[in-house]
Backbone:
């Protein structure tokens, strides 16, 4: 996959007319530039430059003790090791390529294209002081966003499998849920099913799965608590797993009936159907060329038109090697989203769609699905939740 | 431990006369600032500022959906949540503190103090544009290096336990080693012993343990290969584990005798004794106030005086929450080490001591121990390897 993504990167460099893209890192096991997972496939200890050229060049300049590991990976045709310092070999390589522009990994808004630390940016300026290249840096964000977004068939296949495995965990979970289980116990069941599959969570395990039950739950991004799922509660789970390095990220909603209740109360059903409608409308609206903010507005407007408060987050994010895979979002024009609302939806991208609303006295109704953008619209990679699920008592 | 380290940080701010230290992060699960592990203990999704003030202030400005998780952690007295953007609340908090200098996490040479990405540095300049604080940034490296280096008793206790567990793994390993085992098989045995203890590796599992056998091995930082341990080989292992978040990092050397050999050849014994002598001399030289480069020179000089080539790396690094814990190193004045050779050894610091040399035709002799700096010298936290270990055939 690394080899194919490097080939794709070379094509993107041509398309954007950028001569060279340099991933500059050190102690990358700790300060980990996310681009390493896409075009390197390993870590380094000392200052290292992984350079991909528009002409197909693949050159790594790195500390001598990291050489064997990267030769073994075999993704870079030329490996230039050094013992004392990177200055001389890096200058020599850049002089040879003589790029008019050198893309490096920084971005104010795209966290997946922002792996260069500020200290290493300053160090790079020192290393190249007096050469023309120090004034030729540009942000690699346009390269990185295209490279992560444009999913190869093999990447789509892995995300699809991750979705199917996650839906399967939800189905297994449905069979063991009983009133009175705490959020922590529900999370433990989910982890058990995940362990049974030999898979790992898609994000940090303290919050994957996230489980929320009832009207007083802590809300997204908090860990599971000792709160029990009681009759009358809406309970929802936010969960994803990795399959061969690619992620799912799905949410499902259950209702825990009160004694004697055959169906959920109208308010609960209406909340769930409003969410389901928001997902469907947003998905139907999406196609290449529409802006992320306009997709968000479709779902947000559907929810507020029904009289609910708007959700305090984006409608959806891209997904791939990471659950939050950076670049364009389906989000409102809020400060915290920077220029992301104005990104165009493009063919080959994968997005979550995850509106939410509160049903007073019951809890949160939310569904999260994953879609891939195709020529004329989107296709669901996850089997959608079509109806509210009930806890059997 | 987070609470104690924050208290320690407040003392260091006083000592350095810095009014405020701000850890500024977003999507920190992916772009992970190492300072989060020391003074936050959790992650965030949106732009967030964790501010510690010289007057004891502990203020976190973060996205509303991250609020519950950080309230639950309870390390910050004041949590200021926002929905749309961090600009207004962050400006308000800084105006209230009105710091003369604001330390932020960037450093050309100390990777543990360099968690701020360049894109977020630029974003921070936008956020604070027009305020006086944008011109009051300084590097937090002097704070971070002191905070990580000065081990609390509870931190020393964990490192000591990690060392003891690792030495125990080496002893278990010694009992199962036989000639012909490959590096991969030896690594698998080590992982089995580690799993039996329910512990995790101290660095990325592809290189932890690292195993090298014989004269043709790939050298430090490469993963284990299918190379078999043959009679006449020196075999060494570089391995560490985490105990309650704190690391060990130790190396041991074995000799695989040829048929009929009662003892290792003179050249092998001399190589091992030279390494052992280098460790002892360096440890005896270390005390508060000496420079890292001078400690390195003691060991390096001992090895070159015996006629061996010098090792192509530093003598030792600090260790703690990470195996490579940043700040001052015991290293030569090479470009790649920046200003690290000139750092003073201080009381409370923990260092590895890990010289190496090649015995032609046999392989690498190396020992890595861990010491803590005390008032007048150092104390070994690892039970040192005193003699060459033999493989039973």
Residues:
């Amino acid at each position: 996959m690394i080899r194919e993504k490097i080939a794709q990167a070379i094509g993107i460099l041509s398309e954007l007319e950028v001569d060279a893209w340099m991933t500059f890192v050190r102690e990358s096991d700790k300060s980990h530039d996310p681009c390493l997972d896409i075009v390197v496939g390993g870590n380094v200890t000392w200052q290292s430059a992984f350079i991909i050229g528009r002409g197909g060049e693949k050159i790594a300049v790195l500390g001598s003790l990291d050489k064997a590991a990267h030769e073994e990976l075999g993704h870079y045709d030329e490996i230039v090791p050094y013992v004392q310092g990177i200055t001389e070999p890096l200058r020599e390589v850049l002089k040879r390529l003589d790029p008019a522009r050198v893309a490096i990994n920084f971005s104010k808004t795209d966290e997946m294209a922002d792996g260069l630390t500020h200290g290493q940016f300053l160090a790079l300026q020192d290393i190249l002081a007096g050469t023309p290249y120090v004034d030729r840096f540009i942000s690699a964000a346009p390269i990185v966003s295209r490279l992560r977004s444009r999913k190869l068939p093999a990447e789509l296949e892995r995300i699809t499998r991750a979705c199917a495995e996650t839906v399967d965990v939800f189905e297994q979970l449905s069979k063991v849920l009983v009133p009175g289980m705490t959020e922590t116990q529900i999370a433990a069941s989910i982890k058990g099913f995940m362990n049974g599959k030999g898979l790992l969570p898609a994000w940090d395990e303290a919050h994957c799965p996230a489980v929320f039950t009832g009207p007083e739950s802590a809300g997204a991004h908090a860990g599971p608590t000792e709160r029990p799922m009681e009759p009358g509660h809406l309970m929802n789970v936010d969960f994803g797993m990795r399959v061969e390095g690619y992620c799912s990220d799905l949410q499902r909603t259950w209702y825990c009936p009160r004694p004697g209740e055959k169906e959920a109360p109208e308010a609960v059903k209406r909340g769930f159907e409003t969410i389901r409608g928001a997902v469907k409308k947003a998905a139907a609206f999406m196609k290449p060329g529409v802006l992320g903010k306009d997709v968000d507005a479709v779902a947000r407007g559907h929810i507020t038109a029904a009289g609910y408060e708007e959700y305090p987050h984006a409608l959806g994010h891209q997904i791939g090697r990471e659950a939050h895979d950076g670049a364009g979002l389906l989000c409102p024009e809020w400060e915290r989203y920077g220029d992301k609302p104005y990104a165009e939806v493009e063919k080959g991208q994968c997005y979550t769609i995850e509106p939410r609303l509160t049903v007073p006295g019951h809890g949160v109704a939310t569904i999260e699905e994953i879609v891939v953008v195709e020529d004329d619209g989107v296709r669901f990679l996850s089997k959608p939740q079509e109806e509210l699920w009930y806890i059997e008592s």
